[in-house]
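# step 3/5: fold
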Amino acid sequence: MRILIATDVTSRGGVDRYVEALSRHAVADGHSVVVAVEETAASTMKARLRGAGLPVWERRLYHRRHDQGTLIEDAATLLSSARPDLVHIAAGVPWSCLPLRETTHAFGLPHTICEQFVPDDLVSIRAHAKRIQRLYNGARAVIFVSEQSRAIMSRCVLLDAVRAVVIHNSVNNDALGRDTVGAETRSSRLRTHAARGEVRLFSAGRFTGQKGFDVLLLACARLRDRRHRFTLALFGEGPEATSLADLVRDHDLGAIVSLRPWTDDLARVAAEHDAFVLPSRAEGLSFILLEMMARGVPVIGSDVPSTTFALDGGRAGRLVRCGDPDLLADGLEDVVTGDLDVVSLTRVARRRTVALFDEQRQMAATMDCWKP
């Protein structure tokens, strides 16, 4: 089949990973693939796709950058040029690519939708609920990356008559497993770093309120006030970069926290640091979380439902209450003192990614949704 995979996500992150993986697996399965991305999307994703031999079409797709008429006109031109047998939308939020979806529907083309993230704020979803419902009803399948996302969406859209399936986000366990630091080595290194006051924490993601990095910075201030020595590297970009820098300054965290640009070289970052922190206020199902689990990196995450599921209720990583800097500091204390049970947590995490979040299996299930 000729498959058009489209996304209007502009920032680097999980949707990039999803689009790249699905495109590669679709070509390997014999499909002809064109990837349509917002013209202002991150250049790194476009470069990697083109490097893999995939045609990447840059179009005006993002609703916050272009007016409705432009979006509809470009959608019609895109579909007329690509002539796909099916359109697959990788949606950052439930109203991603709505004009493209509606134009696809008007053209009578089959489409599938993967909701990469459903926000807890339902106001925006309800504002578009009738449009989303109509498109869901006409979709060949609607994919949710977690049970939480499907449950949230069911508060706004009727899913009884919709082919709504949960296919979790996934990682290439074989590739990630080849360059991991062993559990025993990590455990020993953490104890050594803790004894020297040199524990190295890191986090990564888009600098938005959803990710909870402000909570993490406040937790670091609490740990510092308890006289623990450690460092935190925070990799990312986004609209709250300035406010996070202000927090670092206001709480005198400059000697502890470094705000760094986003990097795609997470293998190096994982190898150089002792633990990964995911303080999100909400998540669909974090790709970076799954990647760190597969790499054998100890994880401390907030107890949002999808992270709680991924970490098996705390058996594959430390869970702390969402949005509470004091409790996050408590959870991190075992890390910076070297008392975290690294071996047990990381071994369970690795087994869990292989069993539940395997890229080959999840992408095959996604492509099954393309069938009538």
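# step 4/5: annotate
Residues 94 and 125 are 7 Å apart (CA to CA).
# step 5/5: archive (pending)
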